Amino acid sequence: EDLDRIITTGPAASDLLNKAFCYERTILVDGCALRRSFIPAALKPRPGECRRLLVILSTDMNEYCETLRFLDLASEDCNRYDIVLRPHPDIDLMQALAIVGPLKLRFRVEGVGYPLEKALMTADVVIYASSTVPLEALSCGVPLIHLKIAGILDSDTLSGYHGFKWDVDRPDAIIPAIRSIWHVPADVFLSRQREAADYVQGYLRGV
Questions:
Q1: In this structure, are residues 174 and 77 in contact, taking their beta carbons and an 8 Å threshold?
Q2: Of 28, 49, 27, 24, nearest in space to 178 by CA
Q3: H or E stretch including 152?
């Protein structure tokens, strides 16, 4: 049966359906965009070195457990960083930790009571498997590492986007991804920050 209208979450989603999935632009309607909890005052300057990794946990218990296991396999190298876990308020991190058992990964937890804007502006890289928070990270100019974890349905909100995002499918690829981010020349880094912030407007601006 033919569709009369498809209401999307903003222009970026409409463009994706049109270009990647060949839906006619005439039936795509830019609907309500994704929520925005804050508007950043400025793009975050890149520090001289990477110190803090903000890990976003969001979808379900399986994602929590597989993300923790993935990072634990990289812990020998990743433990040099300040690793901050930000769990979803409705999914119990302690239950996930009980399921996966002892970890070599060293981390601390910042709950949702800690302001998201502050969490993003103090992060040097945001790591995630699925969430809408990376969209807000891009609006702040924070680079992303997306964990492509086997066995988890791909629900990446930035699927197909690679401008300021590094995809990682193995634990031993996390450190090379971080190095790659810091090897981007300063002027190119700033340009990609601006392009990423502009891209996000297609999702987060009001409609």
A1: yes
A2: 49
A3: none
Can you count the helices (H) and strands (E) in the chain?
A: 8, 8
Q: Which amino acid does the sequence have at 19?
A: K
Q: Helix 186-204 vs helix 133-140: angle between axes, to the nearest 10 degrees? A: 130
pLDDT tens figures, 81-127: 999 999 998 999 999 999 999 999 999 999 878 898 899 999 999 99
For 140-177, write each residue's pLDDT tens digit.
Answer: 999 999 999 866 556 677 877 888 999 999 999 999 99
Of the chain, the end-to-end C-alpha distance in Å amounts to 28
Residue 57 to residue 50: CA distance in whole angstroms: 21
What is each CA distance from 27 to 24, 134, 144, 204, in whole angstroms?
A: 6, 28, 32, 21
